Amino acid sequence: MDEREQLKLSNQHWQDDDSRWQQEIYDWQHETQRLVALLYMMEKALPEHSLKLEQHKHRIDRHNQDLSHYYRGLVSLNTLDDSNVSDISQQRKIHDRMEKSHSAMRKEHDKFSQEYQKKMSHFRDLAQRLIDELEAVAD
């Protein structure tokens, strides 16, 4: 093989290396973009969930205050004369409203609980996808 052929062969090896490097760079960029997308999805999921959790907690706290207020009314009613029918009738109306309120709060909480489980499962799936992607990149 003459020197010119050796130079061409060396050049071909360099071009092959360059093509391989270009492909590796493309693959790495693609992998990085996928990881960033997964991180973004995870990052977006948590604050939205945290906000909804805070709002739900606030509604439960408000309901708890209503229950405490209602209970104090029951206690004070017990100290009055039981013959006062209007007080008992009024208390029955309040009790019925509290019963409806509590039932609505229970439904809301059950729904929130189901959504919470679903969102945490989705977040866990995203985390697992991120781990799987990282393991694939590391190999």
TrEMBL record:
<protein>
    <recommendedName>
        <fullName>ATPase involved in DNA repair</fullName>
    </recommendedName>
</protein>
